[in-house]
Amino acid sequence: MKQLIKLKVNGVVEEVFVEPWWSLAYVLREVLNLTGTKVGCETGNCGTCTVLVDGKVVKSCLLLAPKANRKEIVTIEGLTGKDGGLHPLQEAFIEHFAVQCGYCTPGMIMAAKALLDENPNSTEEEVRAALSGNLCRCTGYVKIVEAVLAAEEKIKIGG
Amino acid sequence: MAEFRVLGKSVTRVDTLEKVTGKAVYCTDIKLPRMLYAKVLRSPYPHARVISIDTTKAEQLPEVKCVITGKDVPQKKYGSVVRDASTLAQDVVRSVGEPVAAVAAETIEAAEEALELIDIKYDPLPTVFDPEEAASTKPPVIIHPDLFNYEPASSFFKLERLQDFDRPNVITHFKIRRGDIEKGFQESDLVMENRFTTARVQHCALELQVALVQPGADGSLTIWISLTMMHPARIEFSRLFDLPVAKVRTIQPYVGGSFGRSATRSEIPIAVTLALKTGRPVKHVFTREEVFYRAGNRIPFTIDIKDGVKKDGTLVGREMNIILGGGGSAEFTVGLVARNCAFGAVGTYRIPNFKLDSRGVYTNNPIATGFRGLGSPELLFAIESHMDMLAEKLGIDPVEIRRKNILREGEANVTGEITHSIGVEECLSRTAERIKLSEKPEADGVWRRGKGIALSNKYTLAPSTASARVEITENEDIVIYHGAEEVGQGAHTVMAQIVAEEFGVSINKVKTASLDTSHTPFDSGAYSSRQTYWSGNAVRLACQDAKRQLFEKVGQSLGVSPDDLEIREGWFTQKGWLTKR
């Protein structure tokens, strides 16, 4: 039987009737039409469904929707920089050619955001470790890591 | 050499803003009003006869709108090299995962539930999984007993398959002969023979395979595909469903990675059949498990290589026997790759006596297809490993044995093709120098490093077709309509760069039309590293044609010869002068 859950998604309160077996990814994409969050495996391997749940990095295909009740969710659509423009991570991904087919990009950016929020002085090694749950088949990761480190610098100087 | 303003520069990709904001739309993101969800019931057997299918219980589920089996789908077969694939199994399944029945329902859950209620009885048949065994003259099983009655889907297939009547599972046999290979080995100081094998690998593009089909009121079809080769696919679907090509429209949103996977047709005809039967849009998204079974994997290769060399390392003869392990149907590439892999074997070295046999073969494994390089990397792995082994045996430097044998400018390769603009010797020397090949790398803690050098070459498929159209809007933006498919490689940025260069405008003034056969012209598609050259030249010529038409009009009104005009930043100038807009 469906149950009612209440979520705050990108600052907006949403009330959704969910089946107990639905994943958060399913609710975001199929119910709330937030298709920026992608699905690639539904087994927690690829990381393209990564979102923030109460500030923590979560693979939304592995979180049952009822478990997201009363949580605050941020997806790629909710990411903004100062003055509502692009977030430094989004800018850096563009500038550093960290995007090719783009399918891993939203999850990659959200995983990077969780890291930089928690540790604004992350080293390259820490960036690599934080992104190790996110697969990219196009870039070879080098430019993604460069972009995250560049975004970190941008944030430090108030970008 | 001409100076370029935009070409050759690192410009911001035209597609990244949409991609970093989550606004880029992929096939899997699209929903249509009244859309149904499709699920497919697949064979658990690698080879079996289908005895009976009972769909009664599944049909009784209220949310299930349509259940189809082999009798409901086109009886014609489809395929890109040979037409050997059925939309749903007809009597026999030839690999695990082959589709046998399909369901369209109001929800994914109802479709999944319906699959569990379909009862299929199978009679298992003998199997063959080893490509070498399958390719023999007396294989344990003949996978397609009717192979020689199937329709070829391309002209070269017809010629080549006729060459191997005595090996019933061989789809394609490609041969190259030069000189006298036996004489070559007799004249050699050393003859060495080895076998190299490569594995089956999944592309694992992050986007899952998707088909979304909308039936039109007039019997037409609109198909959103997450695959490449949208124009050739459209033609194949029109043939399969007896529709004029103009009534089949394919749309390609952003594609979440290709790497060759997307040349397969990925069961789109199933979604088409369900859409036609229900009159409603149908979306079919593969699970990741289905991708492994049915989206095609890298073809496993068995490569036997025999080389004859002089003491100084000069190649006298090379013989290669290659077997490509296909699946239960040929798909795009067991046929094509069997030919194209040989390109890698002929492009680097001078070999007076050469013999190559490459065979694509059916097995009861999941289907195999192209994957980055259409077979050249596999052959180059064998060849370059063998060059090192020869060098070691002869006590020659690995760089020297290569240098001695590489093709020079103007020389014919083993197929008789003349080699132009070959920079391989310079590449070899400079690479060896840069990586300090002669110096032994130092140990790094527990890590030991090695150094090696190998040569590679890659051809692009020809002949090939591309077309483009240019439109200049009222506010001087330039809209480019082309069929170059963007799968992450940057094709749309490259095309926009070419337009910006030709018109002397900033790349921001160039807009790329979305890929849709209703308005973007024919292009063979994103494969074989062909688009920058083929589609790029189509775009360039379209720009030049548009400029010529403008120059004629402007020249007339200004009383200037069109040949004296040029265009820069949206201004017409008499060559060297700024003049009226």
Folded structure, characterized:
The complex is a heterodimer of chains A (159) and B (581). The longest helix of chain A is centred in the last third of the chain and has 15 residues. With 159 residues, chain A is α+β, with helices and mostly antiparallel strands. A five-stranded mixed β-sheet of chain A has the order 2-1-5-3-4, with helices on both faces. Chain A is globular. Helices cover 33% and strands 16% of the residues of chain A. In chain A, a hairpin with a 2-residue loop joins strand 3 and strand 4. Chain A folds into two domains: 76 residues, Ubiquitin-like (UB roll) (Roll), CATH 3.10.20.30; 75 residues, Orthogonal Bundle (DNA polymerase, domain 1). Among the domains of chain B are: 191 residues, Aldehyde Oxidoreductase, domain 4; 107 residues, Aldehyde oxidase/xanthine dehydrogenase, molybdopterin binding domain (Aldehyde Oxidoreductase, domain 4). Chain B has 15 helices and 23 strands. By secondary structure, chain B is an alpha+beta fold. In chain B, helix 10 packs parallel to helix 11, helix 11 crosses helix 12 and helix 14 runs parallel beside helix 15. Chains A and B meet through helix 2 and helix 3 of A and helix 1 of B.
